[in-house]
Amino acid sequence: MRCVEQDSLSRRRSIYQLNDHLPVSEICFVETIEACVKHCPTPFNAQSARVAILFGKAHKLLWQNIWDSLQTVVSAKQSNSAKKKIDSFANSAGTILFFEENKTLMSLKKQFPQYAKNMRLWMQQANGMLQYMIWQTLSENEIGASLQHYNELIDKTVNKIYDLPKTWELVAQMPFGAIESEPMPKTFLPMEERVRVIK
Ligand SMILES: Cc1cc2nc3c(=O)[nH]c(=O)nc-3n(C[C@H](O)[C@H](O)[C@H](O)COP(=O)(O)O)c2cc1C
Predict the structure, then answer these.
(1) What CATH code is carried by the domain that includes residue 130?
(2) Residue 189 resides in a domain
(3) Which residue among 35, 92, 174, 189 is buried most deeply as judged by most CB within 10 Å?
(4) Residue nearest to atom 1 of ligand 1 (CA)
(5) What is the domain extent for residue 141?
């Protein structure tokens, strides 16, 4: 076994300062996301994660909708910084929307009643694995991204806007683009607190 290349893992960060100059073609980008969706492991090989990749007008529309809802709930004091944040997402190259197909969840619960109470949790875990797999893969291709959860503001409307099945439940949003500026260094807990080697 080769030792893990730590640089490649540590380079994946939450990048908020992004622009819309993707360093790869849209076709290549979509194929890369499809490969992650295809090969990410899933419980019972159920493949319940769904993604929508938004570019151009569709991407701008998402952040416009989020801002329209957000500005009705943020205070006047928070409004400027909230708008700046939303604008930074809108100015990126696109957004990946992550969903779970609820039909798959229902059918698996029926098929495996003994696991029914854990099934939703496992599906969400698998969706998180896919989010990370894509995030890491983008980072390895010099594409910055962050993970966002504006679900409550848009989950009633997003399926309608993009004509997606009603059974797709929104899980997360990942704006992506070319990296304008690197994030601040982050702190880490001592490894002894988090990993124990037991023989
Ligand atoms: C499950 C999960 C949910 C997250 N949700 C958000 C979010 O809603 N908004 C956000 O800006 N960052 C979100 N993050 C990013 C974390 O804040 C970030 O990964 C963490 O602070 C470490 O920073 P790094 O991504 O630069 O390594 C989320 C990360 C994970 C794993």
Answers:
(1) 3.40.109.10
(2) no
(3) 92
(4) 128
(5) 13-180
Whether 58 is in a domain gets the answer yes
What is the rounded CA–CA span in Å between residue 135 and residue 32?
Answer: 11
How many domains does one find in the chain? 1
Say what percent of the chain tops pLDDT 70.
97
Residue at 8 is within a domain:
no
Query: 174, 131 in Cβ contact below 8 A?
Result: yes
Q: Which atom of ligand 1 is nearest to the CA of 149?
A: 8
DSSP letter (8 states) at residue 55: E
| CB-based contact 194:34 (threshold 8 Å) | no
pLDDT in tens, 115-133: 999 999 999 999 999 999 9
Q: Is residue 4 part of a domain?
A: no
Question: Quick one: tokens of 92?
Answer: 């990126």
